């Protein structure tokens, strides 16, 4: 989902009023106040201005700007946590909400360090790298010079490297190449579930909300004759179809634009919806956060009508939301039953990502207990 904001920003430089376009792929509104800064500004002064809502347009050395951003981040991260009363236990749902708020405030503060860009995506600063390709992949062509945050540019560069190098997928024995704005499939456990669960049919499968196309590709590699993958995001559709071609499964798999289900019925329908019912704060977070479990509910409520007789719907879902107190198992089962579905089987696995073992993570208790499941669902016979 693209939430790009294009607007105008103004500032005063060398006693002259200036303006430029504002770009934000993350949907951040333009700053109301901008001052010019260079290598002479201290990290404390820059941090104070950013906290006050004043953006800094950088005119110094590019590498010094990166170092300044790191210094500002250290000042945010060293803030002591709020003191708790003795014996007080904070509910994990509250810990989660405070963590999300802190993340949002951190992003807003660090996003106040701005860079100038020419219309060809050249950054006119000393020691600036060539970021033209990374910017083109994210922004597309632009008509005029603009300003954007250094933090966003670093994200663009990181996404470009993910796209260039790809993500090794053990279940495929090959790499998936995510595009900018399309969530990278870095958690191997849910892919392994789809690679190993017993197939009800090899005739046809739907992959709902395909993203990079990784699950559709796994099904095609397992011998499913036709896989119809769907997504609402044009970037995801382009990404998935390019991956299908690169993996040589494009004769079997195709990604099309659809709101959840394509037309028709299938003996296998797979969906890996966002796992946490919360509001995303950036386009990329739509792959993780699903307000009020909208996509999960949409998939469950439409599943029975799109399954063939004795067909199966595979719901890939983590129980992290349950451990965070954001959705209970009873609520999930009520959604399943209310959609006219029954549970055929459930295959569980433990996450292997680094955060599950990071005791310094504020959400460590929930992450350590997390289980990812493939729910095999069938329609209740009428």
UniProtKB/TrEMBL annotation:
Residues 1-13 have a biased composition (Polar residues). This is Class I SAM-dependent methyltransferase. Keywords: Methyltransferase, Transferase. Residues 15-24 have a biased composition (Basic and acidic residues). CDD domains: AdoMet_MTases. GO terms for molecular function: methyltransferase activity. Residues 1-32 are annotated as: Disordered. InterPro entries: DNA_methylase_N6_adenine_CS, N5-glutamine_MTase, SAM-dependent_MTases_sf. Signal peptide: none annotated. GO terms for biological process: methylation. It comes from Uliginosibacterium silvisoli. The keyword Methyltransferase applies. Gene3D superfamilies: Vaccinia Virus protein VP39. The keyword Transferase applies. Pfam families: PrmA (PF06325).
């Amino acid at each position: 989902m693209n939430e790009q904001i294009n607007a105008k920003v103004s500032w005063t430089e060398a006693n002259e009023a200036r303006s430029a376009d504002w770009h934000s792929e993350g949907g951040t509104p333009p700053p109301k106040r901008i001052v010019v800064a260079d290598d002479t500004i201290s990290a404390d002064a820059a941090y104070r201005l950013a906290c006050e809502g004043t953006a800094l347009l950088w005119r110094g050395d590019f590498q010094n700007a990166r170092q300044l951003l790191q210094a500002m981040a250290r000042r945010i991260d060293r803030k002591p946590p709020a003191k708790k009363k003795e014996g007080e236990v904070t509910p994990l749902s509250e810990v989660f909400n405070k963590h999300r708020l802190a993340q949002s405030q951190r992003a807003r503060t660090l996003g106040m360090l701005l860079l100038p860009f020419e219309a060809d995506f050249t950054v006119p600063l000393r020691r600036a790298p060539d970021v033209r390709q990374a910017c083109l992949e994210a922004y597309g062509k632009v008509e005029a010079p603009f300003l954007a945050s250094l933090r966003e540019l670093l994200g663009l560069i990181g996404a470009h490297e993910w796209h260039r190098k790809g993500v090794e997928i053990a279940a495929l024995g090959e790499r998936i190449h995510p595009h900018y704005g399309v969530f990278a499939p870095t958690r191997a456990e849910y892919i392994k579930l789809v690679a190993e669960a017993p197939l009800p049919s090899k005739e046809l499968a739907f992959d709902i909300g395909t993203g990079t196309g990784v699950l559709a590709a796994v099904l095609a590699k397992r011998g499913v004759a036709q896989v119809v993958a769907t997504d609402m995001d044009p970037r995801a559709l382009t990404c998935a179809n390019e991956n299908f071609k690169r993996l040589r499964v494009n004769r079997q798999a195709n990604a099309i634009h659809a709101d959840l289900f394509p037309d028709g019925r299938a003996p296998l329908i797979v969906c890996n919806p966002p796992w946490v019912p919360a509001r995303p704060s950036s386009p990329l977070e739509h792959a993780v956060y699903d307000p009020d479990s909208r996509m999960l509910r949409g998939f469950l409520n439409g599943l029975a009508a799109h399954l063939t007789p004795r067909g199966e719907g595979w719901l890939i879902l983590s129980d992290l939301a349950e451990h965070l107190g954001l959705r209970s198992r009873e609520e999930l089962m009520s959604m399943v039953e209310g959609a006219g579905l029954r549970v055929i089987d459930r295959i569980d696995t433990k996450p292997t990502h680094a955060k599950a073992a990071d005791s310094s993570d504020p959400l460590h208790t929930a992450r350590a207990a997390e289980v990812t499941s493939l729910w095999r669902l069938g329609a209740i016979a009428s």
